Each structure stands twice: as structure tokens, then as C-alpha cells.
Amino acid sequence: MIPRVKGFYNCLQLSKYFKKLKIDLIHSFHYGSDYSEAFAANIAGIPWVFTKKNMSWGGTSLNSWKIRSYLATQILAQNNDMIFLFYRNSKKINLVPRGVKIDKLDKSNNEILKDRYGIARETKIIITVANLVYIKGIHVLIDAFELICDKDTSYHLLIVGSKKTNYGKQMEKKANDSRFSKKITFTGKVRNVNKYLSISNLFVLPTLDEGRREGSPVSLLEAMALGVNVLASRISGIKDILANFPDNMFTPGDKRILANAILEQFSDLNQDKGNLFSSYIKDNYSLSKEVISHQEIYKKCMKI
Fold it and tell me: Mean pLDDT score of the chain, rounded to an integer?
């Protein structure tokens, strides 16, 4: 949209293209605050909805978020904090958290995967699955893991996610420099996360309470859906998902708090709780439920 005159011209051309395609509705999943698509859709007279996927709002992007929201026909928020903080008085807002496919936890390749990474059979495995950026708090998790291993070396930490980012490279170096480096594995990006969850005892999501926070973290939902015990930061997005499981949340950012929270979880790990997680996700965060919510919003926009 900058420079403005050129931005307006581009939106005008885009609106003509939309009309040519005879589009009935546009749903944007764009993370950012750019409003050019919404502007073009409005010029073309096409209903335009978007999913608010993160907790970004203020700063230099504030006006863009406001314009984007003003131009939207309907807005889909992924957690309650989004509604309270950004859209408290809006009549366009709809709470539509993410949904996941409900799979059974397949443990058939359990031992093979452990052998690949040199993990002993009796080892207690902690896993995190994340896009490796600073806000995900992996540095705090590694520090907490060291504190745990100071007391008990029967643990192993699996960090699943692309490690090609600057932060990912820093964290891999941090792990390699650790006195417990042999007990920390960076897998990189993997095709089937479920296999790695299947060998894990506890999934941890240590996102920091800074900046963007979480929208509706899919990695946490997938772990719970598979019946894996979980522990996650008490922040926006996660608070909705774990509202019924307050003991599975912790105050983020402090390695000692996280280490103690992990040890406390391991003192009470059991499959019954994993089954409870799985049933809860099936009832409240299934992919089919998300699909139905989208359908109803589309009908509302097109007055069907």
C-alpha cells in the first residue's frame, strides 16, 4: 500500500481480476496486517473474511490492523484474548479455534526411532515441536533441561522443528555446548511428527509471554489429540486450550519454574490423563468442528 497512489491503483487492478474470476467469497489466512486484498475485495463487492492467527496488534502495524478489520465482512479469532483485547465491541467477531485430525497414537516403531537417536529404552523423553524462533522459548527449555539432568540423567530432550533459522542455529550450538549435549537431539523438520510424539513421555511448549504469544498452537493440540501428556506456558491461546487442565500450565520465562513443572509432571504421568486429553480434543478441537464453523460463517456472509 506504499506509496499510496500506486497501492490504490494495484488494488483497483486486483479487484478487476477478482471480478473476472467470479469469486463469491475470499477467506484470508495471512498472518500480517496488510489490507490490500481486503481493499480490493471491497471494491469488487466480494465478501472478505480473515482469520486472526496471532496476537500482533500494536506498534507501527496498529492502523493497518484497524483498517483490515474495518474492511472485513467477518473476523475469525482463534482465542478469547484476541476478542477481549482487540474486538471486544465488534459484531463481526467469531471464535473459531484451530482443529486437528484425531489419530490414534501408533507406537509400533517406537524402539526403531529410539535406536536412530541412540536413546536407551528406559529413558524419559521430553519433546517440543515448534518453529524455532526466539518467542518459542527454546533457550529456557534447554536451561531447564540442564537443571533436571543435574538431579537425574535418565531424561532426553527432543527438539523438533526447522533449525535453519538464526535462532535455531544458536539453539543447536547452545545444546552442543551443554554438558548434557548427548541428551539433547535436534531432529530438524520432520515429515511425520506423530512418530516422534509416539516415543515421548511429555510434550512441552515453553512459549514466552512477549510480543506475539500464541494464537491456537497446533503442536499442542496434536500432542493432546494423540494422548501425550503436555505442559505449556500460561499465555494467550494456550490458556483457552488448557482451561480445564490448570496444572498443566506454568508461568513462562524462568528456567527453574519450568524445570520444577516438568519434574512435577513426571511424578504423576499416566495414560489415563493422556486419554482424557485425547477425548477433550476430540470433543472441542476436531478438524470437523473447525470446518463446520467456517461453513456457518461463509453462509452468513453470502446470506445463504
Answer: 94
Residue of 131, 46, 50, 148 whose CA lies nearest to 94: 50
Q: Is the dihedral of CA 222, 228, 234, 240 positive or negative?
A: positive
Stretch(es) of the chain classified as CATH 3.40.50.2000: 4-99+286-302, 110-284
Run of H or E residues at 51: strand 48-52
Q: Which residue bears the cell 528406559?
A: 122
pLDDT tens readout for residues 137-160: 999 999 999 999 999 999 999 999
Cα angle value 72/67/131 (rounded, 5°):
80
- Does the 4-99+286-302 domain belong in CATH 3.40.50.2000? yes
Judged by DSSP in three states, 139 sits in helix
Domain 110-284 has CATH 3.50.50.60: no
Rounded distance, CA 167 to CA 140, Å?
13
Please return the burial class of 22, using the count of CB atoms within 10 Å of its CB with bins 0-12, 13-18 and 19+. Answer: exposed
Element of type H or E holding 82: helix 80-86
Grid cell of 104 as nine digits: 490414534
Cβ 241 vs Cβ 220: under 8 Å? yes
> What's this model's pTM, rounded to 2 decimal places?
0.91
| pLDDT tens column, 266-292 | 998 888 999 999 999 999 999 999 999
11, 27, 71 from 43: Cα distances, Å: 8, 16, 10
Strands (DSSP E) contained in 92-201 are: 93-95, 124-129, 155-160, 184-188
DSSP-derived 3-state class of residue 179: coil
